[in-house]
Amino acid sequence: MNSLLTPKEVQKLLKCSPAWIYKAASNGLLPSVRIPCPGLGTKKKELVRFKQEDIFDFVEKYYRKS
User: Is the pLDDT of residue 25 over 70?
Assistant: First the structure.
């Protein structure tokens, strides 16, 4: 398996805002993995990571030729 991409790396590939990346991952538009990150606070924290091939598949799916 190739290494997983961070949201910042996906942002650079798609040239979009970080907020869009997280929202698209949350609603399932961009396939992602959420890795639980234990912490001391009361907020639940997770790392969000992406497979590069999933990002490329997303681009191909939504690419429109005019």
Answer: yes
